[in-house]
Amino acid sequence: MASLVQTPARHDATDEEILQRQLADAFPGDLHQAWIRARRRLSGAGYGEGVTDAYVRLSPQIARLVSPQTAVDLAGVVSGVAIRAGRAAAALLPEQALAAAETVGRDGFPRWLLLVEYVSNSAPESLAILFAHMPQLLLQVGLEGLESWTRIGIRMAEGDRERRLRFFRLDDPSAIRWLQRASGQIGFADMEAKLRPFLTALWGDSPPLRETPSNAHEQTRRRAGFDGSVVRLPSSFPGFQSSDAGRLY
Q1: What are the b/e assignments for 131-160, b being 16+ CB within 10 Å?
Q2: What pLDDT was estimated at residue 8?
Q3: Which of 24, 82, 86, 230 has its CA 20 to 30 A from that of 9?
Q4: What is the torsion angle, in degrees rounded to the nearest 10, for the CA atoms of residue 119, residue 124, residue 128 and residue 131?
């Protein structure tokens, strides 16, 4: 005879329950209430669900990687970015903060956050664009190099919004050159003066040398070629040692 005793139905935790457990683990004691207050202020500010949801979803991971207090305080930075740089940049900030914490570590994170606030104040229209390149830039030049490159771009633009946008989109050749210097790469700007006497000795002439435009096709950007009487050369040879890049030129 079959048993009339039924096995209790298995209860799978909902996403909300999982999130609540993560929050309790990431923000112990009084910090849990501090996080709730920060989240309520962010939600009540009217920046939109995308901004609040990104903070709620990712702040527990930032708390574990950096510190609970830093993750609570991040809500204020998100709010400031929303006001100055717009909702799109603010919604991206928590994800970028998590990626930065993984790259620069607990000690470097406060400096990274100060850099974000600096760009938000000095070049608000460019912050979302900078975020799009941020993970790769941090790997390429490190935090100190990124700080230097960012400040150079803002100073060079001399208050011109469009020039800042071109720089941070990497549409400005000078943005590429300064990145090369920050990362120790040998680029066209470093080699141009050396190439002219070499070509004169080789050919008895020195044709005009030009850097391949940054908006050229990828294959074109990686190769030397002729454009009428002009010799086009790549801005750099990424992935090669400085000595190898010099030989390639």
Answers
A1: bebbeebbebbbbebbbebbebbbeebeee
A2: 45
A3: 24
A4: 0
pLDDT of residue 200: 72
Quick check: 68 and 104 in contact, CB under 8 A?
A: no
Q: Rounded to whole angstroms, how far apart are CA atoms 64 and 106?
A: 10
Domain range for 205 is: 188-248
Mutual angle of helices 49-65 and 68-85, in 10-degree steps = 150
How many other C-beta atoms lie within 10 A of the C-beta of residue 6? 6
User: What does the chain come to in residues?
Assistant: 249
Same domain, 168 and 203: no
Do 164 and 156 contact (CB within 8 A), yes or no? no
Beta pairing class for 225-227 and 230-233: antiparallel
Tens of pLDDT, residues 124-177: 999 999 999 999 999 989 999 999 999 999 999 999 999 999 999 999 988 988
In a shared domain, residues 164 and 237: no
Higher model confidence: residue 13 or residue 49? 49
Domain boundary (130, 148, 183) is at 183
- Residue that the structure tokens 């702040």 belong to: 59
Distance CA 118, CA 140 (A): 21
pLDDT score of 36:
95
Q: What is the pTM of this model?
A: 0.71
